[in-house]
Amino acid sequence: MLRQYELVERVKSYDPDADEALINRAYVFSMQAHGTQKRASGDPYYSHPIEVAGILTDLHLDDETIATAILHDTIEDTIATHAEIEAKFGANVARLVDGVTKLSKIEAQTENQRAAENLRKFLLAMSDDIRVLLVKLADRLHNMRTLHFIKDEAKRRRIARETMDIYAPLAERIGMYEFMNEMQTLAFRQLEPEAYESITRRLEQLHAGGGDRIARIASGLKLLLSRNGIDAEVSGRQKHPFSIWRKMAERHISFEQLSDVMAFRLIVPSTQDCYKALGVIHGRWPMVPGRFKDYISTPKRNGYRSLHTSVIHAENMRVEVQIRSADMHAQAEYGLAAHWAYKQGTGTPDTQVRWIRDLVEILDTADSPEELLEHTRMAMYQDRIFAFTPKGELIQLPKGATPVDFAYAVHTTLGDQAVGAKINGRVVPLRTVIENGDQVQILKSKAQEPQPGWLNFAITGKARAAIRRYVRHKERDESVALGRKLYDEIVARLPAQLGPDALGAALKRLKLPDEASLMIAVARGSLSDAALMEALMPGSAGGDVAAMPPSQRQAISIKGLTPGVAFDLATCCHPLPGDRIVGLRRPDEPIQVHTIDCAKLADGTDADWVDLAWGDKSDGGTARLQVIVKNEPGALAVMSGIFGTHAANILNLRLSNRDNAFHTFEVDLEVHDLHHLVRILAALRAADAVASAERA
């Protein structure tokens, strides 16, 4: 453990103007507050915050951040209060300590809920001052270094998993690769102990067998570059066990098949020297195709810049080479900590980092702890591609991203209004996967709304969170509207008129918080008609009144509701406005709408039937036709021409049967209503090229 004077000297060595008294007061206060508390290792508890502060001195952080590190556990683990911290150390330190402090554990919460709430508070504080993140990462790193002292294996694995899923990606996002690598290695040791031991043992054997192979290759690289007039600092290392294990898993290969387990770093004076060194290396050894990455011209989202390449060295051995300048190296080692805004005297940290804003937006849209954790992990996804806006702005996305993800990455409103996209000038569907280097233009309309179907191909956390939020709100509003119609119809069946206080009394009997919750329960079928009638008017659904609740007296209109939200249009019969329809209501499921003559209704005996009707302005639906055309040139054109003449859009066309004389097609057609479909069928039947046309 660092002594008090050692910690102060460390800070004063890079910041002579640091507030020595502040650090001394924090040191003494932390020791007194934690008192006789012990860690799992048996060390005094206050040794932990002191070591965390020591880690941050390596990043050359300011006196307030060092004081925060020393005090970061006092509010959580001692009787010290926020007001006491503010009085002794100032508002800034108190705010930072509060940001790092986790929420008090609530026994009623699940593990996921605790993790999500802690993450929520932490991210909000981080968005206000990035120093919160730096302290938290140092805190987690030291906890991981001492994790092996915890006897409970389940607790060790939980902490390791949280580190792997949340904190290591956060370190990567701000470019602190040394923190990331160490945390991943320590977490990997706990999560996959057998794999860790196996890879570590093989690396030791490789090192023993190869002797000073790394040193020899490094000296050879330095000599080659110096002969070409490039002064370079060359260092080599074996790759980290977790990095090796991940490559083995991704490529489905064994350790023996993995050839690039060594990596070399070249630090040169300038950017021009980076490219010059690259040319020299590629001129000496053949490059491995597909392994060259230029992060200087297109930096990573976290600001990381470097040239990466893999070459085939002697004896068919692959080695990875990273080439960067000294400034780039400082950025790669310490990331955001290397150029924090307040260090330059601006007074406030840089809070406008795009990914931080995205994370904070996810906080506002997540509905459950599981959803928050899922979307946050998505937002910190590591394997990325680069795409450009029409104005040349660089947007980084995960591999497999679509124009929907791109639109939400630019702005949430643009995502909500997206109707299509152009990739490299060509109009494409929204589900098209964006390739690295594509230029993407989003086509928008103010009349557009997010579609539930987008969740099938949107992959970024920000996009999925925004779509889910919209669907939730839409579903709630429409469920309330549908529930209201069902409620009014049920009330009409009661033997007497309801009094003004009947609804409030029913809510108390059903233990529902408000009227909207009641309507949602009615719409989703989680509350039966009989139970509602009994709650509204006790005895109205009992055996002394009637054996069964009265049947529905009038049809319920579904005008204005969105298919797939409050109800689903059945794909077996494809109901259209104008069809007589009926709904099947099952608990906690959207109402499924069928035509009255659908054969599938016979299978719905476990569902409540609801008589439905189309609203006056209901428009649009999908009809399925079976059309038999003559096997002659132009027959398909005749059929398509009739559809075009009647302004009907073909959604799907399938050849279901062919013979010498006739071809049978199944056509999914977008039409206005039943009358529109009848006119199309009449026109088809009148055509000489069409043998028959029927609704399937």
TL;DR of this structure?
This protein is of the alpha+beta class. 46% of the residues lie in helices and 16% in strands.
Description:
There is one protein chain. Mean pLDDT is about 80; it is low at about 105-110, about 340-350 and about 545-550. The longest helix has about 30 residues, at about 460-490. The protein contains 26 helices and 19 strands. The chain folds into five domains: about 5-190, Hypothetical protein af1432, CATH 1.10.3210.10; about 195-340, Beta Polymerase, domain 2; about 355-470, Beta-grasp domain (Ubiquitin-like (UB roll)), CATH 3.10.20; about 500-615, no CATH class; about 620-695, Alpha-Beta Plaits (2-Layer Sandwich). The chain has a five-stranded mixed sheet with strand order 1-2-5-4-3. A five-stranded mixed sheet has the order 11-15-13-14-12, covered by helices on one side. The radius of gyration is 33 Å and the shape is globular. Helix 18 (about 370-380) runs antiparallel to helix 21.
Separation of termini?
Answer: 79 Å
Corresponding CATH superfamily of the largest domain: Hypothetical protein af1432
Number of helices: 26
> Major sheet: size, sense and barrel closure?
5 strands, mixed
Question: How does the SSE layout of this entry go?
Answer:
Layout lengths: L3 H11 L5 H15 L12 H11 L5 H9 L2 H4 L4 H8 L1 H10 L10 H18 L2 H15 L7 H21 L3 H15 L1 H18 L2 H15 L5 E6 L2 H11 L10 E7 L2 H14 L8 E2 L12 E6 L5 E8 H9 L19 H12 L3 H11 L4 E5 L5 E5 L4 H8 L1 H5 L1 E6 L2 E3 L11 E5 L16 H32 L9 H9 L4 H10 L4 H8 L19 E2 L9 E3 L11 E5 L5 E5 L12 E6 L7 E10 L4 H11 L3 E10 L3 E10 L2 H13 L3 E6 L1
Parallel strand pairs: 2-5, 11-15, 12-14
Antiparallel strand pairs: 1-2, 3-4, 4-5, 6-7, 8-9, 8-10, 13-14, 13-15, 16-18, 16-19, 17-18
Helix pairs in contact: 1-2, 2-4, 3-4, 3-9, 4-7, 4-9, 6-7, 7-8, 7-9, 8-17, 8-18, 9-10, 9-11, 10-11, 11-12, 12-14, 17-18, 17-21, 18-21, 19-21, 21-23
